[in-house]
């Protein structure tokens, strides 16, 4: 450091040059410090994001799968918040130092339409006489019921056709023609084929397990033979699929989703490559139609081709394969609040205290409370529209204000930040459900239609060929449509297999769609 005397000897220009040099040095030091702080902050955010992902992975593997949180009820801070009770009787046993709650299952009530066999357990005749000598009279009875199971009953239908001939000339043989059978030259009747299909696509029993079950009853039904029945049945009922798809496009409100599936022997592809099952649900005012479609990829071209002539509302999740809808003026794109809620629900399970994620869950939960109110009060579409305009609209405004505020201070790479960005980027799609009372707030209906398929593939694991995948899509479509319209799938398939051989025109096939059959016909139908 130069002395004060030496500094006095220097000229003003030299002093200015020294000051400027010092300022530049200070600026460089400050810039390096800022860069270091930014780098530290960047690595801290990256560390927090990785730690968050690690905790979420732990929760997914070892924690509860439910999205509910222990703090969820107290977050609403309502004195009359409803408490969900399961169907159990609760007895409290007081012990010396603590209380223990014992859950005692209630005996379920057996259906009234089951056949009853009365077994009277009476007292001896001597107990019917009182000590005073008078005859006792019966004033009531106690009934204890137990459910018994009778294994499946099997019967063989014989189609007997007497043959007639002239004895004199031994010619002109007369014999009645065979009735039209569902599967000709096959030992399986319609009920057996329907039973096999229900076992596989509803109860998730692969054909090799069904083969073992039949073997226990002394019946030999090899799985390749049974597989042949299913494929032949698919060829017969496949004519219904274009009609089902047309009704979905005419419904005006479609929900769509997709799920991966493993299919072997696909031309030009490896067996390890994923294929996809696309599911479309048409929600018309007077019917519900569900259509499964097998495709090799998850490309956007598949829903774009199927919905080419569709006009109305299309509800999907946030998959980019549906982004083309936003440019289609004839389709109004709806989002899914269940997907928007999911990131915050995951974070809620990681925290033991109430945080920002709980606030997001609370605000979205209040929207669902309004939807629940509309359902419980059995409101019409017009009434639900008015309820949403009066209550949901203001809640959505509150949610939007909170999200806009939080996005400014939240790291973009965190799960919380991504959850906020998801909602803000799709705000118009998520709020389009306000436009019509028939629309849902989420895509859960079609996701519930996919769930049985996802559960089934854990058992049968893969489809042996594209033809098998198409057959599965056909029967999943018919069965899911039956369930959505409160129709017994087994009765429906039986009735369908008996009637379809007599179909000649498109209108004949259309009458056999599940929702076009009068309920009293299926109710009175017997095998």
What key phrases describe this protein's structure?
about 525 residues; alpha/beta; five-stranded mixed β-sheet; two-stranded antiparallel sheet; 18 helices; about 10% strand; extended
Write the layout of secondary structure elements.
Layout: H1 4-9, H2 12-62, H3 72-76, E1 88-94, E2 99-105, E3 163-164, E4 174-175, H4 190-201, H5 207-216, H6 223-237, H7 240-249, E5 253-262, E6 274-284, E7 287-295, H8 301-306, E8 312-315, E9 331-334, H9 337-350, H10 356-376, H11 381-407, H12 415-425, H13 427-431, H14 444-460, H15 466-484, H16 489-499, H17 506-510, H18 519-524
Parallel strand pairs: 5-8, 8-9
Antiparallel strand pairs: 1-2, 3-4, 5-6, 6-7
Helix pairs in contact: 4-16, 5-6, 6-15, 9-10, 9-12, 10-11, 11-12
Can you give a write-up of this model?
Helices cover 48% and strands 11% of the residues. The protein is built from 18 helices and 9 strands. β1 and β2 form a beta hairpin. α10 (356-376) runs antiparallel to α11. Residues 71-89 have low confidence and may be disordered.
Q: What amount of the residues lies in strands?
A: 5-15%
Note the overall shape.
Answer: extended
* Unreliable stretches: 71-89
Helix proportion range: 40-55%
Number of beta strands: 9
Mean pLDDT: 85
How many DSSP H or I helices?
18
The secondary structure category is alpha/beta
What is the string of helix and strand elements? HHHEEEEHHHHEEEHEEHHHHHHHHHH
Q: Span between N and C termini?
A: 108 Å
Oligomer: single chain
Main β sheet profile: 5 strands, mixed
Radius of gyration: 35 Å
Order the strands across the largest sheet as they lie in space. 7-6-5-8-9
């Amino acid at each position: 450091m130069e002395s004060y005397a030496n500094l006095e000897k220097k000229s003003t220009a030299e002093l200015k040059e020294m000051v400027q040099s010092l300022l530049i040095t200070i600026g460089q030091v400050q810039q390096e410090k800022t860069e270091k702080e930014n780098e530290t902050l960047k690595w801290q955010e990256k560390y927090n994001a990785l730690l968050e992902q690690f905790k979420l992975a732990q929760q997914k593997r070892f924690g509860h799968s439910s999205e509910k949180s222990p703090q969820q009820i107290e977050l609403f801070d309502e004195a009359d918040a409803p408490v969900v009770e399961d169907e159990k009787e609760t007895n409290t046993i007081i012990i010396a130092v603590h209380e223990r709650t014992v859950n005692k299952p209630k005996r379920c009530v057996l259906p009234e339409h089951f056949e009853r066999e009365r077994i009277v357990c009476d007292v001896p005749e001597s107990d019917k006489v009182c000590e005073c000598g008078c005859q006792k009279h019966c004033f009531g009875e106690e009934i204890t019921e137990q459910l018994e199971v009778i294994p499946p009953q099997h019967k063989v239908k014989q189609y007997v056709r007497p043959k007639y001939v002239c004895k004199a000339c031994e010619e002109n043989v007369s014999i009645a023609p065979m009735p039209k059978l569902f599967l000709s030259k096959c030992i399986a009747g319609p009920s057996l084929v329907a039973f096999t299909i229900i076992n596989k696509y509803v109860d998730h029993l692969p054909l090799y397990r069904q083969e073992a079950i039949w073997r226990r009853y002394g019946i030999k039904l090899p799985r390749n033979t049974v597989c042949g029945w299913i494929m032949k049945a698919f060829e017969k009922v496949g004519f219904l699929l274009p009609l089902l798809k047309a009704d979905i496009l005419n419904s005006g409100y479609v929900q769509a989703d997709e799920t991966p599936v493993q299919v072997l022997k696909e031309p030009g592809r490896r067996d390890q490559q994923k294929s996809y099952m696309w599911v479309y649900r048409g929600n018309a005012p007077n019917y519900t139609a569900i259509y499964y479609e097998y495709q090799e990829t998850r490309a956007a071209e598949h829903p774009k081709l199927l919905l080419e002539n569709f006009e109305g509302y299309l509800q999907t999740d946030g998959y980019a394969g549906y982004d083309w809808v936003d440019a289609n003026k004839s389709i109004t794109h709806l989002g899914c609040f269940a997907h928007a809620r999911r990131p915050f629900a995951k974070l809620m399970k990681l925290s033991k205290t109430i945080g920002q994620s709980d606030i997001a869950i609370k605000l979205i939960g209040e929207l669902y409370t309004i939807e629940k109110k509309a359902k419980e009060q059995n409101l019409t579409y017009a009434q639900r529209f008015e309820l949403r305009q009066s209550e949901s609209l203001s809640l959505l405004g509150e949610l939007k204000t909170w999200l806009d505020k939080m996005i400014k201070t939240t790291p973009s790479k965190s799960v919380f930040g991504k959850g906020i960005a998801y909602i803000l980027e799709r705000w118009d799609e998520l709020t389009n459900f306000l436009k019509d009372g028939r629309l849902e707030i989420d895509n859960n209906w079609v996701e519930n239609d996919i769930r049985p398929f996802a559960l089934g593939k854990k058992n049968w694991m893969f489809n042996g060929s594209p033809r098998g995948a198409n057959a599965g899509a056909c029967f999943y479509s018919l069965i899911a449509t039956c369930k959505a319209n409160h129709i017994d799938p087994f009765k429906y398939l039986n009735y369908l297999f008996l009637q379809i051989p007599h179909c000649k025109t498109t209108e004949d096939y259309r009458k056999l769609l599940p929702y076009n059959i009068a309920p009293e016909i299926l109710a009175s139908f017997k095998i």
